[in-house]
Amino acid sequence: MSEQATPAREAAAEPAAGGGEPPEADRFRRLVAQTVAGPPWVVTVLAIALALVVGGLLMIISDPEVTDTFGYFFARPADALSASWSEVSTAYAALFKGAIFNPDAAGSLTEALRPISETLTEATPLIFGGLAVGLAFRAGLFNIGGQGQLIMGAIATTWVGFTLDAPGFVALPAAVLAGLAGGALYGALVGWLKAGPGAHEVIVTIMLNYVAFLLLGYLIGSDVFRDPDNPQPISKPVADAARLPHLFGDSLRVNAGLLLAIAAVVFTWWLLNRSTLGFQLRAVGANPSAARTAGMSVGYGQIMAMTLSGGLMGLVGMSQVLGTANANNALTQQIDAGLGFTAITVALLGRASPVGTVAAALLFGALQAGGREMQAAAGVSIEIVTVIQALIVLFVAAPPLVRGIFRLRGEGGGHSGLLAKGWNG
Amino acid sequence: MSATLTPTTAPGSATAAATDRGHWYVGGAMTLVGLYALVAFGLGSRTDDGAKAVFNLNLLGDQAIKVPDLTVPAGPTAIALSLVCVAVGVLRLAVRLTGSRRTAATSAYLVAFVAAFLVWATSGHSLNFTSVLNATVLAATPLILGALCGVLCERSGVINVAIEGQFLVGAFAASFFASVSGSLWAGLVAGCLAGGLLGAMLAVFANRYLVQQVVLGVVINLFAAGLTGFLYERLMQANPEYNKTMAFSAIRIPVLSDLPVVGPVLFGQNAVFYLTVILIAVVQIGLFHTRWGLRTRAVGEHPTAADTVGIKVVAMRYRNVILGGLIAGLGGVWLTIGLNITFNKNMAAGQGFIALAALIFGRWSPLGAVSAALLFGFAGGISVSLQPLETPVPTAFLSMTPYLATIFAVAGLVGAVRAPAADGIPYTKS
Amino acid sequence: MSLELRGITKRFGSLVANDGIDLEVRPGEIHCLLGENGAGKSTLMNVLYGLYQPDEGEIRMDGKPLVLSGPRDAIAAGIGMVHQHFMLVDVFTVAENIMLGDERTGSPLAFAGWLDRRRARRDVAEVSARHGLDVDPDALVADLPVGVQQRVEIVKALIRDARVLILDEPTAVLTPQETEELFTVMRSLREAGRSIVFITHKLKEVKAIADRITVIRRGAVVGTAGPDASEAELAGLMVGRDVRLTVDKAPPALDEDAEPAFAVRGLTVLDESGQAAVDDVTFEIRPGEILGVAGVQGNGQTELAEAILGLRPAAAGGIWLDGRELTGRSPRQVLRAGVGYIPEDRSHDALVADSSVAENLVLDLFDRPPFGRRGTMDVRAVRDNAERRVAEFDIRTSSIDTSVGTLSGGNQQKVVVAREMSRPLRLLVAAQPTRGVDVGAMEFIHRRIVAERDQGRPVLIISTELDEIFGLADRIAVMYRGRITAIVPPDTSRADIGCLMAGIVPGSDDAPPSGDGTPPAPDATAPDTAAPDATVADTTVADSAVADSAAPDAAEAGDEPDPRQDAPVKDGDK
User: Fold this and answer.
1) Which of A183, A249, B242, C213 could hold A149 in an S-S bridge, CB 3.0 to 4.6 Å?
2) What residues contact residue A362 under an 8 Å CB cut-off, 6+ apart?
3) Chain C contact for A25, CB < 8 A?
4) How far apart are CA B262 and CA B256, in angstroms?
5) Which residues of chain A from 267 to 286 reach within 8 Å of chain B, CB to CB?
């Protein structure tokens, strides 16, 4: 009944608002509360820790050798505990070595930098994707169609990449722009369906994901795309000239896609905070009705937001095809690698701000890079990384849960910055 | 009770406007598609020269009552059926139909169109129609269960896009526990419970921590995919005895299963299928004729109103979301031990999202969702059966139909689609 | 059954919504709870209905303490409530709504809670017949007019055998006639020994129906009174100081020969269901004139304003400002043409709650120099503008970066007013310009509106508060069911305006002036029947008009060519 309570609150708040500063004691109390509760990043750090703990527990209970030691726990508890500890510590040590720094393999500069290079390489598409989802969030739209948009971007990039026979300074930009355009058009379709007939963007994007996925499957089997020299269903590779160059020598995978990602961050920050279009997008997102009354076109805002978001997603597809992560530099049925959905978690963790998105993408990129090392060195399936990522976002979205677990006091609020809205809204 | 005091979130005015002019769009589109069918199916080269389409109607060799094959002249039949489509389209253009008449017209149109397509596709070949129906039912069963889960959740006001995840954990748990215990029923119970647990997770984060529910569903899907993928690689890959090929055997209901065509399809399936049929009836009747149903719908439409007459809104939502999870878990059970398939990573392959589509396409009603699931199941079933017929239509495009149909539906081209008013809006006091 | 609230205190965070409230409701009385919007009336009643738990204090019934942990307890204790926003499920039938939570179940599957619809229907019919509340159990609630929906709510409470009935602002959505019908029902319930708590902020209704009155202000009881207390006394208690119901303003400096600056001709606007929400409306406003549109909420005023602003398409007719046609233009074009607009629901239509004061102040001109140039925002210009407006309009905020949603209602409204009046205006449209704002802000906003008029601009005020209309308007147009039933001068009696608001044209079959801009007022000379106790006059006039005139439809009346200028209201009967 907060709506009924609100007027009363206004009435009572009147003297405070009119009389300037709140009383000293009140301010002090609030300060204490804030310190104890911690700023939002405290919750984030705790959420990450909590997710790693749950991940560790999963490793323990799913390893028959370790669970066997629990069979005689009461006889020799040390066995069980040391087996558990060694299981988890080995895995997370491998994760760290794969993502940040590996003291065992730091013989040369290249080897010392390799884990960071891997992390940055994995983070690159996540930055594009996180920005895409975050931008749409800010305009009040939930772009769950990253998979479809990045597939469309990848298709366009690939087609340009293997048909255009041109030197690098033409072929690469052309292929990049094609990816941008492919995703943008597919995103614009969603915006148009939202602005015109009022179709809910979540439903439309989910459906378009599968349309794109099936179209991709059809195309890589078709004469236009199919690589005749390969027995697998895979497209022709893009020309060498159109591939993203390595940044620090051929043995490190980090590539020029990272520079494009940084440019995209700067652009998105400027767009949201310093451009008139961004002002309009934010107003449309926060209160479409007020935006309309103030003379803005809500439909235009929604179409622009989805176009830009789709374009950024198209760049995810572009970096998947042209980047160094793809040995073939070609389209496969798995080209999206779940990035459309991981991007959502990145945007949520980054609270839909460009800078936060970069931090979240680096974290998830590190988990991804480290996860591969973990699988190779410790034999723990990389799928655990997905579990950890999902848990981090779940915990971050529910600050009271995290505070409860760590017995922190704090003000109830704090949410993912998303308006709760139904299908009709 | 934030935001709940504005009880009726009317659908956007744009949607209302679209439906207002709807019958023009729909009628026009139907007529055009009908004309296309006439040209492509009826007058095309495939049906030339008196080619015949042969439909085999016996699923099994030992069918007690056999029916002869149905042979039709492909060209004239396709033309006749296409003309039915055109006629319905023109009718929709000329008259603004409402309610059951509109449903009847749309159904007639769909049946005629699909039949015309089938005749055209089968022209010069033979197709086992009963086996297509059987494939439809097999493909539709999990969609029905997923959509029923969606009905329970969303009718009480919680959006559930985690059906996919519930399928995955249900499928995993069913296969694992059935393999370990050797009992299919243990697997079934475990699968349902796994789905219910994921439902409980959804309910807690949605109702207690007020997390935006679509976001929540997406994250839970990732969680479920990661978890089952991890456990699969960890447990099942190394130990096939944790992931045995097992299945409920078919129970042929005496007499009924001997009926031609529908007999083996509807009365010769396994226990999970019959359970599904019972659940359809329970949910449909329960929702519209019992106290539970009335309260569920009230909580989804106007939770504050329900609260003011003493109904515990949040408890209702918890209960329904968990019940829904159990049902979606059964959908997962079907995917492994219902179909005699071992568990595999991401084996739900988007069926949870098709179930969501069926829920929306069926306008949040149990029977509507079941019809939509059957339609989508048919699109899946037919695309398999058509491959030997060498039609020029790529199966990828047939597989797209459920998704495209749903987009058309939410775009208001198939009449207004309205979700329960409070769907997705958490209920909080003061 | 007597009910007593003792020392009820309810806090929301640091805010005290109810502060030690005492209230006693005796059997068979109509107890009026009077207070301004936001005084804490609804909070108190939600405590009494078990929706909120009080932080302090207790509720006693017949001398025994009563603990209400939820509405279920309140219902069991014989307390029923009709909320301001109806608690009805639109897509349910009347019977389904009434039995919800108290379902009639039976065969064939009683164990599963099978609904016995026949019994539900019968019970509804029985209770509604007993209390003279005519409702059709099988009608869909969404199809019912608000007055009938309210009846459904009352039946819902009575079928649960409510001995104490709480009515929260029940008249806000009713016409004077429907209000009178409601009062009849209330009186008959009182005769039957039931108690009623009647929440309102309208003094005249209190005078008409209350047995006892409790006035609350800022969450605390400030006084009790009997029905013989004067309106001025009650008003004083309610707002805390002498209220001036008039606005300081000079008579309009009108040039009688001036061309009308703003004209609406034959405007028809459809609502979502395709019905005419605004039906063939015509009026003109001269430069330097305020036209006030009076009417009960929901008679097309909102749609009229939205159509002028281009937020709704016009189905017929046109809108002209200074000779330029505005019909069919987008909201942006209309604003650029010099129209200022204060929408009736500021948080929904005017402000972005999470954005800063500074950003909200440029919501309209963000992409125009000096704020936006070639797609880029000039942050400094936005801030400078905000500093100026905050000072000029006395917006009390801790900083211009504060999000607007945290400001008080009055200051939020000042942000809207500041933004809309900072453009060079050719027309000001203000809907409910002072709804939910404190008295200080109200006076400020009224002064700004009058200042706008005094600079020679046409102003259109839409308000459901007759006092505001009387205080501001130079001419009054009354809207009823989408039509303008008359345009009259501001010295027209309250009673006559009340009749017009109910669609009854004073002076029986006399035609009101059709709104074509001709000098209006058939009854400008009507004796001031309204003076001391307007309610009584309201009622009798309305009643006699219903009885005596053939209740001519405004449409038919509008076609009558020759308005008699001097028919006093009371002589309407032959």
Assistant:
1) A183
2) A119, A120, A123
3) no
4) 9
5) none
* Sheet (strand C483-488) strand order: C339-342, C427-431, C459-462, C290-294, C475-480, C483-488
Indicate if C126 and C272 belong to the same structural domain. no
B223:A391 CB<8 A: yes
Average pLDDT rounded to a whole number, residues C135-160:
90
Amino acid making up residue C191: E
Torsion of CA A314, A315, A316, A319, to 10 degrees: 130
Task: State whether C184 and C286 are in the same domain.
Answer: no
User: Tell me, what DSSP letter sits at residue B5?
Assistant: T
The CATH number given to A121-364 is: 1.10.3470
In angstroms, what CA-CA distances link A385 with A57, A390, C396? Answer: 13, 9, 50
Could you tell me if residue B16 is inside a domain? no
CA-CA distance, B157 to B152, in Å (whole number)? 9
Neighbour order of strands in the sheet with C212-217: C79-82, C164-168, C195-200, C30-34, C212-217, C220-225
The alpha carbon of residue A204 and the mean position of all alpha carbons in its chain are separated, in whole angstroms, by 20
Q: Do C486 and C555 lie in a common domain?
A: yes
Task: Evaluate whether ipTM surpasses 0.95.
Answer: no
Q: Which of C375, C402, C423 is the last residue of a domain?
A: C423
Compute the distance between CA of residue A143 and CA of residue A201 in angstroms, rounded to an integer: 7
Residue C197's φ and ψ, nearest 5 degrees, are: -105, 120
| Helix (H) and strand (E) counts in chain A | 17, 0
Instruction: Give how many domains chain B has, as a whole number.
Output: 1
pLDDT at A26: 52
> Searching chain A, which residue's CA lies closest to the CA of residue C43?
A5
**Residue numbers in A near C396 (CB within 8 A):** 17-18
State whether residue A344 sits within 8 Å of chain B by CB. yes
CA distance A364 to chain B (A): 14
Burial B279-294 (b: 16+ CB within 10 A, else e): bbeebbebbebbbbbb
pTM for this prediction: 0.84
Q: Is residue B288 part of a domain?
A: yes
- B322-339 tens-digit pLDDT: 999 999 999 999 999 999
Residue C532 confidence class, pLDDT cut points 50, 70, 90: very low
Q: Does residue C127 sit in the same domain as residue C46?
A: yes
Please count the other Cβ atoms lying within 10 Å of the Cβ belonging to residue B264.
24
From its phi and psi, is residue B346 left (phi > 0), alpha (psi between -120 and 50) or beta? left
Q: Which residues in chain A have Cβ-Cβ distances shorter than 8 Å to B220?
A: 390, 394
Q: Which domain holds residue C381?
A: 351-423
Domain ranges of chain A: 121-364
Task: Please write the tens of the pLDDT for every residue from B34-86.
Answer: 898 888 888 877 777 777 888 887 776 666 677 788 888 888 888 999 999 99
Residue B103 in tokens? 């449903």
Instruction: Note whether residue C472 is domain-resident.
Output: yes
**Torsion region of A136: left, alpha or beta (phi above 0 gives left; psi -120 to 50 gives alpha):** alpha
d(CA B383, CA C275): 47
Taking the CA of residue A301 and the nearest CA in chain C, the distance in Å comes to 14
Dig out the tokens for C497 from the structure: 């305006």
Distance separating the N- and C-terminal Cα atoms of chain B: 6
B344: closest CA of chain A, how far (Å) = 13
Q: How far is CA B148 from CA B168, B184, B325, B381, in A?
A: 17, 23, 10, 21
Q: How far, in whole angstroms, is CA A152 from its chain's centroid? A: 18
Cβ atoms of B427 and B303 within 8 Å: the answer is yes
Rounded Cα gap, residues C50 and C31, in angstroms: 19
- Nearest Cα residue in chain B from C82: B308
Q: In terms of Cα–Cα distance, which of B419, B192, B217 is closest to B322?
A: B192
C413 contact A CB<8A: no
